[in-house]
Amino acid sequence: MTLSKRLLDLVCGFFLFILLGPLILITALIILTLDGRPVFYISERMKSLTEGFNLIKFRTMKPAVGDSGVSGGDKTARITRTGPILRRSRLDELPQLWNVIRGDISFIGPRPPLRQYVERFPSIYAQVLKSRPGVSGLASIYFHAHEEHLLSRSQSREETDMIYCRACIPRKARLDLIYRANRNLCMDVSLMVKTVFKRLR
């Protein structure tokens, strides 16, 4: 990560953390009241082929022993009362500001993958993770909605995994590599603005 990119993350991260602090607190209280504990969902993600970190989000699903993999139609019954609104508005991602400030992720980059997929597809992620993972990026802006549509049709964990591995990982990787080949500070700012307007819509 370049110094200018890190400085952009820190300045924007602290500014948004202060600006959105009341919203983060209110959201946490609503989740605690309606869905109970835990308020946060902490998941190990990877920022390199071997280095993981704890990604923080607001919890949108009921905990389940042995839960693994991405979310698909097979997990719909576990979505909490506040889950649909949090996911649709992307408010569940607000706690990731802490990950940005810590330097685990950037605002813009490939979405940080789960360890199991990095271990299964090392040749893909060896290239993708040359860029610092991010809250948003090309794949998040241009493929996320289609990914959710594809995964929503699955009826089992195995089917969700198959769809994600065959249809999602390769397509997202292509977009992530396009970003890596063209990344610069202006591109990051442009993608941040597009992300904001996409959320507002």
Q: What descriptors fit this protein?
A:
201 residues; mainly alpha; two-stranded parallel ribbon; 4 strands; 57% helix
Give a description of the structure.
It is a single chain. Helix content is 57%, strand content 10%. It has ten helices and four strands; from the N terminus they run H-H-E-E-H-H-E-H-H-E-H-H-H-H. It has helices at residues 3-19, 21-35, 83-89, 96-102, 115-120, 122-128, 138-142, 144-152, 157-182, 185-200; strands at residues 40-46, 52-58, 106-108, 134-136. The strands form two sheets. It has a two-stranded antiparallel sheet. Strands 3-4 form a two-stranded parallel sheet. Helix 1 (3-19) runs antiparallel to helix 4. The longest helix has 26 residues, at 157-182. It starts with a helix and ends with a helix.
Q: Average pLDDT across residues?
A: 94
Number of strand segments: 4
N-to-C terminal Cα separation, in Å?
30 Å
- The low-pLDDT segments are none
Biggest beta-sheet profile:
2 strands, antiparallel
| Beta-strand percent range | 5-15%
Strand order of the largest sheet: 1-2
Report the helical percentage: 55-70%
User: Helix count?
Assistant: 10
Give helix and strand order, one letter per element, not per position: HHEEHHEHHEHHHH
- General form: globular
Q: Structural class, judged by helices and strands?
A: mainly alpha
Rg, Å, rounded = 16 Å
